[in-house]
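User: Sequence in, structure out. Go.
Assistant: Echoing your sequence, followed by the C-alpha cells.
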Amino acid sequence: MKTMRIDFVSDVSCPWCIIGLQGLEKALAELGAEVEADIVFHPFELNPAMPAEGQNLIEHVGEKYGSSPSEAQAGQGRVRQRARDVGFTINNRFPDGRIYNTFDAHRLLHWARLEGRQHALKRLLFTAYFTDGKNPSDRAVLVQVAQEAGLDAAAAREVLDSGRYGEEVRAQEQRWISNGVNSVPTIIIDNRRVLIGGQPAAAFRGAIVEALEARGAKA
C-alpha cells in the first residue's frame, strides 16, 4: 500500500466541495488497498465579509452572480441533482435559505485536525448545513457537531469562545490565495496533480494513478 497526502482546499458552505469530496472518497474506495490517503482540509472562505446573521440565499446569489430569483433557483436545482447523483442530499432551501459566515467553522476544523477528527467533522458540517439546514456560524451548532464527530464538547466550546486558531486560519487562507487558489474545491494530489471543482470519481482516480506513476518515474 502506498501512502499519499491529498490537500483539499474548501469551504463548508460550498456545495461543489461536498460533491467533490464524494467523488474523491469514491475513487479512493475503488482503489482500495492500493492507496492510503491522508486528506488534509484547508480553509477558504467564499464570503469572508458575511455578517453573523448571514444573508438570504436568493439575495446573495443575485448580488454575487447577477442571477434573477428564477435563475438562482434553477441553478440550485441543478446542484441538488448533481449532489443526489453522488449520494449526498442537499435540501431545497428556497425561498428562505441563508448563506452564513464560516470562519468559526474553519477554526474548529483546524483544531479537529490536531485532534485527529478533521475528516469526520468536515463531513458532519456539510450535512449540518446542506442537509439539515443548520447555521454553521452558530457556536451551539458547531459544538454539537464537534461532539457528534467524537470531539470533546467543552474543549470545542473553549476553542470557539477564545478565538483560538484565528491567526492560523487566516495565514493558511492567505497562503493558498498567494499560491493561485481562487475557487473551491481545489484538490492537490500528492503535491503533483491539481483538480478544481466537483469532479467525478473517475477524474480523481485518474489523477491519483498519474501521481503514483509520476512518483515511480522520479524514483
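User: And one key feature?
Assistant: The chain has a mean pLDDT of 95.
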